[in-house]
Each structure stands twice: as C-alpha cells, then as structure tokens.
Amino acid sequence: MSVLRTEARRTIAPWLLFVLLAVGLGFFFLFSGPWSRDAVAWDLQWTPSVLWSRYLLSLLWPIIVCGAALQGMRDRRSGMEELLTTTPLPVGRRTAKVGLVMGLAAVVGYLVIVAVGLGQVIANDGRFTFTWVLPLLVGIASVVAGVAVGLAVGRLLPHPLTAPAAGVVALVVGVVLQIAGERGSSVEQAVPNRIALLSPTITQPSSPLVEPVLAVSIGQLCWLLGLAATGFLVLAARRWSAVLPAVVGLAVALPLFPASAADNFTDSTGAGKPVCDGPVCVTTLHADWLSTVAGPGKDALARLAKLPSAPTHIVETTDSEYVSHGPGDPTALVVRRDSYLLRGTTGRTLEYEILASAPVCSGAVTDSAARYVVASWLLGDLVTPPHADIYGPSMTTSMRDAWTKLRALPASEQLTRVAAARQAQQTCSGDPYALLTGASR
Fold first, then answer.
1. What gap in Å lies between CA 157 and CA 135, rounded to an integer?
2. Burial track 388-397 (b if 16+ CB lie within 10 A, e otherwise)
3. Which residues are registered as beta bridge partners of 334?
4. Shortest CA distance to 174 belongs to which of 58, 268, 39, 12?
5. What is the tens place of the pLDDT at every residue in 71-124?
6. How far is the C-alpha of 30 from the C-alpha of 247, rounded, in Å?
7. β-strand 211-212 against 265-266: which pairing, if any?
C-alpha cells in the first residue's frame, strides 16, 4: 500500500479521480435531459442507471485517455528516461505501478458515479434484476482500456500536443460511433453496426426494460480487454507483438455483434408483456397502475370515438420519448406512466392528459397548446394543464385564443378542425395549432 500511496503522489491519479467525479456527477445533477426526467431516468431502475453511466463515458473516456497520455510522458518530460533504463528495475514493473495507480483512480471514479445512481434507485424502490451486472463489467473494462491506451500513446509519442490530441480523437471517435449506434440516426447507415459497437461508450437507453443482448456485452468485453492488454504491453515492451491481444479481441467480437442496431438490445425479463382491462393495457412492470388508468382510459376512448379514425385501445409504452421509434399503430393511443405529465395523476386529470397524449413533434408551445385545446374540446370545457407553468406564460394565452376562435364556429366545423388538428398531432405533419384556428386549412 505504501508503494501505491507513493506512486499516487507522483502521478496525476488523484486529479484524474477528482475531474471524473466533477464531470460525471455534475452532468447528472446539474443538467436536465432524458437521464433526469424520462422513464429511463438514471435514478429509477437498476439497468438504465448503469447504462447511463456507460453513456456518460462519451465524456469521461476522452478525459481518461488525455490524463493517461499526459502521465505516460512522465519519464520523457522529467528527462530521466535514459537514466531509468540503466536501473535494474525492469520497465514492465516500473510502468505497471503507474498503470495500476491510474487504473485504480479511473475505475474508482467510475464506480462512485455508478454507486450514486444505484443508491438513488434503491431509495426510489427500483425493480431489481441482475441484468445490470454485465454492462457494469463492460464499463469497467472500457475505463481500464482508456487508461492503457492513453499511457501507451503518451509513452510512444511524448510530445506536448499528444495528450490533448488523444483526448480530442477519443471524443470524436466515441461520439461518432455512439451516434452511429442510434437507431434512425443519420450516421447509422454510414457506419456498420458491428463497427459502432466497438465504441467505449453506449447509446442512450431507449426503455427501462431493455439491456444489451448477451452477444453484444461478451463481444465488447473481449474487445475492450484485448485493447487494454495491448495498451499495457506497448507501455512495457514497445513490441509489435503487443497488438495481438487487440487483434484477437477484435476477431472474437466482430462475429458476435449483430448486423443491425435493432438487435443490440432485448427485454429478457418479460416485464414488457401487456396486462389488460378491456381496451386498456399496461406493461407487467406497471400492472399496479392498471386499476388507476383503466377507468379514465375507457372514458377517453369513448370521447375520442366521435372523431374519424379514432383509436380503439390504449397501450402503455416504456420507450423513451427522446428516442425515435418510427410510426406506430394508428389504432392505439400510447401513454407513458413514467412521463412527468401522467406521474401521480388520477381521475379526470388523468383522462385529460390521456386525451392530450401525442408524439412530441416540434416542441413548440403552440403544438402543446393545440393538444390541450383538443383535449379540452373533447371534455367540453377549457381546462388549464396541471403543468402549464413549464410551457411559459404564452401557453395559456395561446390556448385561450384558439379556444375562443374554435368555439365561435358551427359544431360541424369545430369537429372538422379538431379532427384535422389531432391527425396532424399523431402524424407530426402540418401545424395543428394553425388547423385549429383556421390559419391553415
């Protein structure tokens, strides 16, 4: 232990640990996004929490590589490289201590971030499964590989620009491969899925019920461990044979990876199977919610029946609102229990939110105003949304203006405009607010 403490004082390992914790925890606690308010939030379920920590590696991995590269240049920067080669202590043992200290700092930093997320999951009574274990091991392997690659690059190329350049390259490559792994992304078609899965990070979770398929996790584990072994061998020996572990890892991983990004994740627990009360279905995971949503859901379907092409049943999805899933079944009204709009609502308020449910298309306030005016029209009275404050003061003004113009029309014209606006909302085509107010026909 005394050797490690001494080595820790001589390296930037404590600073690396501090930066990883500052960036990682700052990202989760200071910024809002799907990781903080969606059904796949990092503090709600075990597996998504670990997957978000791996997603975060798109920021942490470049820092690890940059810091390790800086440390890898220590002997050259101190001007003692030739002197050290004359000592009886082998290069491998000397560099192993540096690698061990840097690796421990990076792994501890990563595990603390994971532990903070899992601690919140436990506090929120998240559903426990063991599907998070393998993704966590892959994340640790990714961190170790980043340290090994950084140290090796710093030792081979001891130039002042090496460390920042290595960090930038790691950031660009990681982000490009991460985006390429997203279903429906513009880069998906340009980069084969098997190459995208070589990324040290992972795409954002699309649902709390899915985890990487076993072949993906095993393949990534083989690739990253091979990469880490190559980094440490290059650091110790500088021989071309050192690349063999990475080549072997790549040869094992590529055949295991699926060809399509659609096959990267699976639901092995069966928690997504539907549980129904008539036309209203929820997932097995949220079966205790069925008694709450069944009544308001049936009432909402009855009100929607007056519109052409009305939905005939309600299904719950746990898919993230922030991930593209393509067009859905037009006969189904899709709801998300973990959406902040539905969370904790009951009775008429829940019915109102169900009537206003629609895909998020443009994100414009007028789109949201149109959804709630349509829901209000179906209920027969203008109702202010419970969360109107998050849309800003223009929300209620826009709703009131549209409501006044709509209600001034004959009943048949009101029905025509409401039907057109709802169709535009469900298909993300046209301007539903303009269709309601008559600005667009």
1. 32
2. beebeeebbe
3. 315
4. 58
5. 988 766 666 665 556 666 666 667 778 888 999 999 999 999 999 999 999 998
6. 40
7. antiparallel
